[in-house]
UniProtKB/TrEMBL annotation:
This is THAP-type domain-containing protein. It comes from the Eukaryota. Transmembrane segments: none annotated. It comes from Sinanodonta woodiana. It holds the Pfam family THAP. Signal peptide: none annotated.
């Protein structure tokens, strides 16, 4: 079957011209509601950019758009939304105004930057939440331990019974610092997590300020 480009005024034909042809983007239904809605939106935009009055749903499986109508010669992936070649943008053959601004490489880079920043903030917030949970559990354990009789781990000892060869019982005091080692390790870990939390909170605060300034500059 010979492929023909559906864009108005484009005479590219498969087998004759050295171009690639691409189908309408499929609607993805097995990767969550967000992905499905985004893929449906993209498909509608493709049909709008093709802008042919003779297009019917029955003909959608046979529609092809050639590589001449993409900045990089092929469509971009579904994510991130609004990438340079998210829809056909070049030589569309009609003067109809687009409902959305034509994406540019600079805009695509800004979109990727915002998405990466958002992921960083979400990761930081998750770590902070995890640390807070650990800290709450540690405080609860400390309160429970405070209700028990106090002891000095440096001088704590236990009496070990020994039976001599003659049958008499003897005792021997032996020192243990297992409690101290455990407490010191817990204190060191808590200090480390405290430093990490402060650093993450600082990142989140700076990111939020940066996004607010960016929004203000965009509005201006």
């Amino acid at each position: 079957m010979v492929n023909y480009c559906a864009i108005i005024g484009c005479n590219r034909t498969g087998g004759k011209d050295k171009v690639s042809f691409f189908r309408l983007p499929a609607v993805i239904t097995n990767q969550g509601e967000k992905t499905q809605e985004l893929s449906e939106k993209r498909r509608r935009l493709w049909i709008s950019r093709i802008s042919r009055s003779d297009l019917q749903p029955a003909s959608y499986p046979f529609i092809r758009v050639c590589s001449d109508h993409f900045v990089n010669g092929k469509p971009s992936p579904l994510y991130p939304e609004g990438a340079t070649d998210w829809t056909p943008t070049l030589n569309l053959g009609h003067p109809k105004c687009n409902t959305e601004a034509t994406p540019t490489p600079d805009r695509e880079n800004r979109l990727k930057g915002r998405q990466q920043k958002r992921k960083t903030v979400e990761a930081a917030q998750s770590l902070i939440s995890l640390f807070n949970d650990i800290q709450d559990n540690t405080e609860t354990d400390s309160k429970l331990e405070s209700d028990e009789p106090e002891f000095d781990c440096k001088t704590c000892s236990f009496e070990e019974e020994r039976v001599s060869a003659c049958g008499t019982k003897t005792t021997r005091a032996s020192q243990t610092d297992l409690g101290c080692s455990t407490l010191k390790a817990m204190e060191s870990e808590l200090n480390r997590r405290t430093v990490e939390t402060m650093t993450l909170k600082d990142i989140v605060a700076k990111t939020n300020i940066s996004e607010k300034l960016s929004k203000m500059m965009t509005k201006k």
